[in-house]
Design goal:
single chain, 350 residues, mainly alpha, 13 helices, 75% helix, globular
């Protein structure tokens, strides 16, 4: 059943990519490579620098996710450098592959078991990191909808009219913030774990909860900042609007199971920007290319190198350990030491 489920969601992701790319092509088919290249080169160098710094902020916050989870588990002694490299590699792969839970668990399992963590501890770490990300999305999403409930009207063509209504959108925003408030109260007042069927949510200590409420929004603010700084001033609707559009686009891309959100992310973002002319499309596409380059492709290339070097080091260590410590001989007998038996056999052979 598990394999069938994985195949099903994989097919859903590929279908989402195909459909989104088809719709996106309808929006961009009149754009030439020359116009896109010109828009790309028109981004001021200092804006590119700010976008790069925003990327560093986002990935630093992601590394903090792992650190928070390790503190929750009571695990100490693992260096910040190791945690940062592991987190960076995990998210760089999962953001591009699309199966964030699978790839995140696999990479973290290989890395953290090498540091002495058990499989159960790694499972809790992965779950807490995923929940931290979701908590940040809910918190910022609630804030954006309460602050500017009209933002959802930009997605009239993709969402039901009931959701794009400003009054409904603001109520949804308050509901999201209420969820975060309940989580905070559960942590401070030490509520009993919330059980939903076989899924159990244990409220962390207040020190952990506060760190989550800082790290999760910080990562999303950094990621949205990449696009914000790459957009031209004439088309930039402001940081709150860009943040709201980014949250909607990124959430839909994750829900689609499309590898890297390819096509899905761009389609939702283009629709929400409500561009009026073809001349406005190239600069927005250039900004999205900067985002995909800085946040996805460059980290993905680095992550592949890190994984290869890590696995090579582990293999070399395993082979060296095998050479230094030969396996126990298969001959055993009660009350006798294996090495003694082996020595006697060697002497007899001589």
């Amino acid at each position: 059943m598990k394999k069938i489920s994985e195949i099903f969601w994989g097919l859903i992701g590929l279908a989402a990519v195909a459909a989104s790319c088809y719709l996106l092509w309808g929006k961009l088919k009149d754009q030439s490579w020359a116009s896109i290249e010109a828009a790309f080169l028109a981004i001021p160098p200092h804006h590119v620098l700010f976008a790069a710094l925003s990327t560093l902020v986002a990935y630093a916050a992601l590394a903090w996710y792992d650190r928070i989870a390790l503190l929750h588990l009571g695990v100490r002694g693992i260096s910040w450098m190791f945690v940062s490299v592991c987190s960076f590699t995990t998210y760089a792969l999962s953001h591009n592959i699309g199966a964030s839970v699978f790839s995140g668990a696999l990479v973290r399992y290989r890395a953290y078991t090498a540091k002495g963590l058990s499989a159960a501890q790694v499972a809790v770490l992965v779950a807490l990191c995923s929940f931290t990300f979701g908590l940040g999305t809910i918190l910022l999403g609630g804030f954006v909808l309460v602050y500017d409930p009209g933002l959802l009207s930009r997605l009239d063509s993709l969402l039901p009219a009931a959701l794009t209504n400003p009054h409904t959108a603001r109520l949804v925003g308050f509901a999201l913030l209420a969820f975060v408030a309940l989580y905070v109260l559960g942590s401070v007042l030490r509520f009993r774990p919330l059980t939903i069927r076989s899924f159990k949510i244990e409220y962390p200590r207040p020190q952990i909860m506060v760190r989550q409420l800082i790290a999760a929004p910080l990562e999303l603010l950094g990621a949205a900042g990449i696009i914000y700084f790459a957009l031209p001033d004439s088309l930039n609707p402001g940081f709150i609007a860009v943040l709201g559009i980014f949250l909607a686009s990124f959430s839909v891309a994750l829900a689609s199971h499309a590898p890297g959100g390819l096509g899905v992310f761009e389609l939702v973002f283009f629709t929400a920007m409500q561009l009026q002319t073809d001349a406005e499309k190239a600069p927005v596409l250039a900004a999205l290319l900067i985002f995909r380059l800085f946040y996805l492709l460059i980290p993905f290339a680095i992550a592949i190198v890190v994984v290869v070097l890590f696995e090579r080091a582990r293999l070399s260590k395993a082979l060296h350990k095998t050479d230094q410590n030969p396996p126990e001989p298969p001959l055993v007998a009660p009350g006798l030491d294996n090495h003694v038996i082996e020595k006697r056999l060697e002497n007899k052979a001589v």
